Amino acid sequence: MPTRTVHLRATPAEVGEALADHLLGLVRAKPDAVIGLATGATPEPLYDALAERAGTAFRHARFVALDEYVGLPEGSPLSFAATLWRQVLGPVGADPGRVFLPDGRSPDRAAAAAAYEAQLERLGGVDLWLLGLGRNGHVAFNEPGSAERGRTRDVVLTASTREANAAAFGSAGAVPDAAITVGLGTLREHARELALMVTGGAKAEILARAWKGPETRDVPASLLRGVRVTGWFDEAAASLL
């Protein structure tokens, strides 16, 4: 039966440590586990904890990602691939041959999206997929209005999402206007566990809507029910639950 459980900690750092414990337990039990990664500020405490504690625990693990910008130049440090290698894949000693990321540089976006969906199928599913929560309720780049059965696809980014990601680029106008993202249906069907990490009081209202509000396309994260979801929240984010 699908379950939803909450792991509540006082601070973002404590949330990161707790989720690191959970991931290390996963790879101890299944060394070649498939782990889905997320980018953004929220998972940084988790990645810091893993960098300190991983040792060789992840040497056989396989990794996938939620999304990638479209159209960045080759080798751009602002790509999600570069960010993940810098923040977590490199520090935990991931095997490059076991890392599978969306191709944001392909001239055929639809083909790149279909190829990534097929790659997830070949991997046999994702044991744990880490998720963040956008201030408008988006998960990956599934913006409000996204279909609950949507698959990996290319999308146009909303102004609010580009604004949220502006710091790394210097301005919202410099943020790419398109990306490849896994779909809500992809997450629901491929992930054996969705680990939703949310911290900070600024996310309290949208977390309450996503976690206990009605299921609605207006809040994409609310559609991730009927599957196993674990919530990893600090007290500020969970203050309205």
Automatic annotation (TrEMBL):
Superkingdom, natural source: Bacteria
Glucosamine/galactosamine-6-phosphate isomerase domain location: 13-225
One of the record's GO cellular component terms: cytoplasm
EC number(s) recorded for this UniProt protein: 3.5.99.6
Matching Pfam families: Glucosamine_iso
Gene Ontology molecular functions: glucosamine-6-phosphate deaminase activity; identical protein binding
Keywords: Hydrolase
Protein known as: Glucosamine-6-phosphate deaminase
UniProt organism field: Parvularcula dongshanensis
UniProt lineage: Bacteria, Pseudomonadati, Pseudomonadota, Alphaproteobacteria, Parvularculales
